[in-house]
Amino acid sequence: MQRLRTQVAIVGAGPSGLMLGHLLHLHGIDSVIVENRSQEYVVERVRAGVLEQGAVDLMRDAGVGARLAREGLRHSGVYIAFSGRRHHIDMEELTGGRAITVYGQNEVVKDLIDARAASGRPLHFGASDVAVHDIDREHPRVTFRLGDDEHELTCDFVAGCDGFHGICRPAIPPTRLQTYQRDYPFAWLGILADAAPSSDELVYSLHERGFALFSMRSPRVTRLYLQCAIDEDLDNWSDDRIWSELKTRLRTSDGWEPNEGPITQKGVTPMRSFVAEPMREGRLFLAGDAAHIVPPTGAKGLNLAMADVWRLGSALASYYKSADVRGLETYSDRGIRRTWRAQRFSWWMTSMLHRSDSENPFDYKRQIAELDYLVSSRAAMTSLAENYVGTAFD
Ligand code: APR
Ligand code: PHB
Question: What is this structure's pTM?
Answer without folding.
Answer: 0.97
